[in-house]
Specification:
This protein is of the alpha+beta class. Helices cover 27% and strands 27% of the residues. The strands form two sheets. Strands 1, 2, 3, 4, 5 and 8 form a six-stranded antiparallel beta sheet that branches.
Length: 164
């Protein structure tokens, strides 16, 4: 498949978070125009923002896609909706969260779409699993590798690999 390499952040802290993440990955892998390349380990992570909620399970997947960036975002939102995602409180608990972290080396700043994800470089729960599968990837806005961003990180939230 020709296409663009993209990285998707996955998270859940409601119901069965690991199963929710697995279901989302399975849905992604069955989506037309998307080929799953790599899946990181799952990580148990402390919430950011609203801290009085259950711990999250997070992972990152690397895909190759023939979809445009807008079509990919529509696909991610459709998977979230199919799984019962309710958007009521920003940063609150959720059954599933699919974030487009990177879409190739593109930098996009539109009203309804910002890529790279504007907070990815500040969040240990993103950089830890991303570093596991793509430490060499260069952040298109900063020109720094994912490992370099992780090494400079100020975020001290607990992010621990889940041993399965």
């Amino acid at each position: 498949m020709n296409g663009t390499i993209a990285y998707i952040g996955i998270g859940s802290n409601l119901g069965e978070p690991i199963q929710n993440c697995r279901k989302a990955i399975e849905s992604l892998s069955r989506s037309k125009g998307i080929a799953l390349i790599t899946v990181s380990s799952f990580y148990r992570t402390e919430p950011v923002g609203i801290e009085d909620q259950a711990l999250f399970v997070n992972a990152v997947v690397e895909i190759k896609t023939e979809l445009s960036v807008h079509r990919l975002m529509q696909t991610l939102m459709a998977i979230e909706n199919e799984m019962g995602r309710i958007r009521d409180v920003k940063g609150g608990s959720r059954i599933i969260d699919l974030d487009l972290l990177f879409y190739g080396q593109q930098v996009i700043s539109e009203t309804d779409l910002i890529v790279p994800h504007p907070e990815a470089h500040r969040r240990r729960f993103v950089l830890e699993p991303l570093c596991e599968i793509a430490s060499y990837f260069i952040h298109p806005s900063f020109g720094v590798s994912i490992r370099g961003l992780k090494d400079r990180l100020c975020d001290q939230k607990v992010v621990e690999k889940i041993r399965e």
